[in-house]
Amino acid sequence: MPLSPDQQAEIDTQRATPSQTLRAVAPGMEAHLYTAHEVLDHGFVRVVDYMGDDAAICQAARVSYGRGTKSVSNDEGLIRYLMRHWHSTPFEMCEVKLHVKLPVFVARQWIRHRTANVNEYSGRYSILDREFYIPAPEQLAAQSVVNNQGRGDALQGEEAARVLEILKADSNRAYDHYEQMIGTDGQDGLARELARMNLPANIYTQWYWKVDLHNLFHFLRLRADSHAQYEIRVYADAICNIVKDWVPAAYGAFEDYRLGGAILSGPALSVLRRMLKGERVEQEDSGMSKREWREFMEMVDN
Questions:
Q1: pLDDT > 90: what percent of the chain?
Q2: 207 annotated as belonging to a binding site for a ligand
Q3: How far apart are CA 178 and CA 167, in angstroms?
Q4: Taking all residues of the chain, what is their mean pLDDT, rounded to a whole number?
Q5: What are the two backbone dihedrals, phi and then psi, of residue 41, each rounded to the nearest 5 degrees?
Q6: Which residues, 6+ apart, have CB-to-CB distance to 87 below 8 Å?
Q7: Rounded to whole angstroms, how far apart are CA atoms 138 and 207?
Q8: Which of 66, 76, 212, 270 is the most exposed place for a label (fewest CB within 10 A)?
């Protein structure tokens, strides 16, 4: 189950005892506080704390006092200008702290984004739970033949069932051995920090992840993309839904200029201009490699 009974009890207590504050609050984000949004089979994302809102972005950009200086429409226009022209500092004035439960192999992808503060559940100090990510059958796919780090067609029938059985059996066997190694019934027991090395990468871990909005948008631009691995993309999608309620104007600009936008290289821009003039352009005379050309055509055809 995503939340342990102790975690749920703590959250229920916190939700039942709200505090009055003089700081700026975002009503949409307040609704997400102390709520765990389930992801995958045992994971979740929940907001622990946050700072700032759309007005804080504008306040920082204008270096003003108070909540904005003009109207909501002007604030939204300013935010879109900042996003459009890659002004990052005002977005760094907003921060969020998330509690995330995720498989270890997803965490190792996630930690590549080194612009956050992270504190992870300690397998040296505590005993890890017997919880493993087992993909849904439709997520079991063969290796892609065009992308060395992607998936191809989904496995079918007996092959999919065989893979699922291997995943389940190996996960439980590894955890059985983990328990045997740390056990102290009739033996000293191996240190937890050593025994954990036998656990598979699909076991769940947890961490607190604190990041500013600028770097969060960078994370989401990469991980909410359709080309990202499914298991991290669903976490990014859950966070997108939270951010959309927290800073709606900033998220709208991010959605338009980053998620829904595209960056063109010099050769790609030159090709696009030639196409707009009615010229027929082929990969051989485009100045782009075959892979660049394929990616470019996918972008303009969509």
A1: 72
A2: no
A3: 16
A4: 91
A5: -90, -30
A6: 61, 81
A7: 28
A8: 66
Catalytic residue among 15, 46, 173, 223: 223
Give 67's pLDDT tier (boundaries 50, 70, 90). low
Highest mean predicted confidence (pLDDT) among 141-145, 158-162, 230-234, 258-262:
230-234
15 is catalytic: no
Give pLDDT, residue 21: 84
> Is 115 known to sit in a ligand binding site?
no
Start-end of H helices in the chain: 5-16, 27-30, 54-62, 72-84, 104-110, 157-182, 192-195, 213-223, 230-246, 248-254, 266-276, 290-301
Q: Is 196 annotated as a binding residue?
A: yes
* Backbone CA torsion sign across 145, 151, 152, 155: positive
pLDDT of residue 302: 66
129 and 43 in contact (C-beta within 8 Å)? no
226 is in an annotated binding site: no
The label of the residue with tokens 């498989």 reads 103
Q: What values do phi and psi take at 99, rounded to 5? A: -105, 120
Distance between CA atoms of 255 and 240, rounded to whole angstroms?
10
Q: β-strand 95-103 against 43-51: which pairing, if any? A: antiparallel
Distance between CA atoms of residues 243 and 54, nearest Å: 11
H-helix or E-strand spanning residue 143: strand 141-143
CA atoms within 13 A on the CB side of 32: 28
Which pLDDT belongs to residue 64? Answer: 64
Structure tokens at 238: 């859950």
d(CA 130, CA 175): 7
Task: Let me know if 101 is exposed, middle or buried by CB neighbors in 10 A (0-12, 13-18, 19+).
Answer: buried
Q: What is the number of H-type helices and E-type strands within the chain?
A: 12, 7
Q: Please state, in angstroms and rounded to a whole number, the distance separating the CA atoms of residues 237 and 243.
A: 10
